[in-house]
Amino acid sequence: MGLDTPDPSPPPAPALRTVITNPEGVRPQSSPLEPGKAPLAPDPGKPSLLRRPCMYLTRFVKSLPVIFITLIVSWSYYAYVVAVVLTAMVDNVLEQVVCAVVYHCLVIMFVWSYYMVVFTPPGSVPPSWRLSKGAVDRLALAQSEDEWKNILASLAVQLGCTVKQRSVQNAVRYCEKCLCIKPDRSHHCSVCEDCTLKMDHHCPWVNNCVGFHNYKFFLLFLGYALSYCVFIAASTARYFLRIWLLEKEADQELGSAKYHILFVFFISILFSLSVSSLFWYHLWLVLHNRSTLEQFRAPIFENNASDPNGWSLGKLNNMREVFGTSMLLWPLPLQTCLGDGISFPSRLPLDCTTYHSIGHTLPGRPDTPSRTLINPVLGGGQQVMVTASQTRAQSASASCEVTTTRSDTHSAALSGLSGSFSPALSPDCRVTITPDSGVTMMDKVTVLSEVRLDNNGHAKTVMVAESEPLTELVTGR
């Protein structure tokens, strides 16, 4: 009789055993990133009953600037329409009609723009740019900074996130709070607690983040606010002077309306000064295609080069990127901006700058070691001597020569002594000094110098030891 095989199934549970289950159902477990499936954003969970009153109070406090602006505009409407147009301008019907029409056009555009910038979301990172639980764990298990960078770069490729901008560590930008890869020009807002596309700043006066989708509305809000305040100040200035100089006559003509005229004039002047600087500053930023954050810290690109004008496409194209291609729609607070807020066109970044091409954009080339230019010096008897050529730069292609005649040899040698003899040629060219008369070889000289080019292309003059060998000289033909 054979041996009985053990039963692999576990023993039955006791009859009195209680199983506690989640009434909301089984929560899905986080799994590694699957291709074609976007991970979900981190769920902060519902706030507790004790935290809800604090959250409501915080929201109310944040909305106080918006409530204040709304009350000011409402009062200014009453002060201008009732006190100025219907009371102070009662003797001039044409002035009443013109001022009333212009004022209502400005107030409509102003309120419309303000409403759009307050209630339009600036744009957030799409779910496809967020990392899964497994991807976050892989980053946490990185043993070194280089490994962390490589993992982050591979995750960006796996998610299909194409980015040109890099962090200070020359890594793909990553938000540890939102657990997502940051698109170009996006930043995390600590007030909104989210990453904002093309974030400019968080404005408390609109209780919203100013970003990609509402930046045009913010500029129009500033422009119409400035026009609104300037128009009120200009149209009420003569009535303010009449009240100030002729107080008794103003009391009889205007009555209690004079107080509204005085206050609306002062407030419009104050708001004009404050809004004016902000409006012209942001207009300058639009013309240069920069945000407020990029103005303080220039973006860093893939080649680890910081370029403040990296996103600039020319002033007209920069305006079109924010306001759209149709100029007829520029003054209207409608969504006309170009792009999706995730990827942006950029100009060629400045890869290398030489001493004779500062400020010009040059094509990129690989880093090369320090070179030594031939530097002629004068010895005894006005003889031309050349320093050691152990690092003379020679081109693999057809070489070029610069021949110096006797008439300018003296000036070239003197400029070489000061460390400024550097022809505006490619560093891959060979410079040959050909004097007019023959020069013999010398074993050593007492004064020797070299002009070296460092990796950045800056020329530096260094002294050479007397024992170093000298180069051969090319005699005159």
Number of DSSP helices?
Answer: 11
Mean pLDDT: 74
Note the overall shape: elongated
Q: What composes the largest sheet?
A: 3 strands, antiparallel
Count all strands and give the number. Answer: 13
Short description:
The chain is mainly alpha-helical.
Structure notes:
The protein is mainly alpha-helical and 477 residues long. Helix content is 38%, strand content 8%. The protein contains 11 helices and 13 strands. It has helices spanning 52-62, 64-88, 93-119, 133-140, 145-159, 215-245, 247-254, 257-287, 292-296, 315-323, 406-417; strands at 165-166, 174-175, 180-181, 187-189, 194-196, 201-203, 208-210, 300-301, 371-373, 376-378, 384-386, 449-453, 459-463. The protein has a 3-stranded antiparallel sheet, with no helix packed on it. α2 runs antiparallel to α3 and α6 crosses α7. The protein is elongated and about 85 Å long. The termini are far apart.
